[in-house]
Amino acid sequence: xxxxxxxxxxxxxxxxxxxxxCGGSGRSLxxxxxxxxxxxxxxEREFVAALSxxxxxxxxxxxxxxxxxxxxxxxxxxxxxxMNSLKPEDTAVYYCSAYTKPIVNTIVVITPRDYDYWxxxxxxxxxx
Length: 128
Known about the structure:
- It is a single chain.
- This protein is globular.
- The strands form two sheets. Strands 2, 4, 5, 6, 9, 10 and 11 form a seven-stranded mixed sheet that branches. Strands 1-3-8-7 form a four-stranded antiparallel sheet, with no helix packed on it.
- The chain has no helices and eleven strands.
- The chain is mainly beta.
């Protein structure tokens, strides 16, 4: 069983930055492929960023590429999402997720239904 807890959300002005964290308990997140997703008001959950199990390979949605960075700190058992140059359209609840099935170290997972565990989400609001 893996428990994921997101933190770091809040209200920020357009152009600002936030860093979300996803802490894990129960298992080491270093052995999993990880992802961040978001769900805006009245919208479906959408992919934001993914990190391979090795921590080397990343993948981003076109809407956040160049502005967001996903990373992990294995010593802290935490995955991060650094968000820069935030826009009002980034407003959403952000969720981290863990893919715990066997997987090649370099593969990233971008489909929500493939993930096994989810955090409770953290609200990010970007004001114009």
